[in-house]
Amino acid sequence: MATYIVEDRKKITTQRIKAMKSEGQKISMITSYDYSMARLVDEAGVDIILVGDSAANVMAGYTTTLPITLDEMVYHASCVVRGTSRALVVCDMPFGSYQAGREDGVRSALEIMKRSGCDAVKLEGGAEIADTIRGIVNAGIPVMGHLGLTPQSVNQFGGYGLRAREEAEAEKLVSDARLLEQLGCFAIVLEKIPAALTSRVCSELHIPLIGIGAGAADGQVLVLQDMLGMNVGFKPKFVRHYADLHAVITDAVGQYVSDVKSADYPRIEESY
Ligand code: KIV
Q1: Which candidate, 122, 125, 118, 64, places its Cα nearest to that of 99?
Q2: Nearest to 145 by CA among 167, 123, 178
Q3: Is 166 in the active site?
């Protein structure tokens, strides 16, 4: 399998991410929630590691992202930061940490940055959280926006289906994207929207748009466990499997169990 060799190990900044769009370079982003995986994906050359609130699903087994707390996000983000030397580390602001208003949001963002050591935060929403984003940017914290399918609003949406199919929602998304750029966001995630809409937003904005289930964009993001084939039974059409770790891990652990049961493990050369 072809791999991408990164020779430049200099730490990636938000300025570098913005420059990548103007230089026509695609941006790779992937989630991680722990030290070991962060080391691997950083070594593999990913540009941005997102400590997503999808940790609620992937790490904790919840059915939505709503239950994860600020303390839990800080824990995951600080583990990732310790495992990363090159990638930009962005931490999701969890549900409930910014929706109550600007003061709450700025305080939460400051706490995430101070306690985790990450490089930027990500929040879901457009005009309705403009004041909060303005406050966070004014506090000197880089902000990544998130539009389209914003999973923290799942109860309002009634599910995880494609967003912005209808004209009115598509127009709101375009105006929200313009607003986030004006407010100083350095990039925006576009989740599960039609590819033609993504392409329109990418050509209108100067900042990079990172897609997930949104067709071609300035960059792409996937949940690590999904693309590694660990999340059996979850295969929406936008997820490409780059490995079958479900089989690799269950085979390896199954072999270990069998070796222990048959007393093949440990052997003399594996003992002191
Ligand atoms: O939490 C997450 O993993 C995300 C990505 C799906 C963009 O927000």
Answers
A1: 125
A2: 123
A3: no
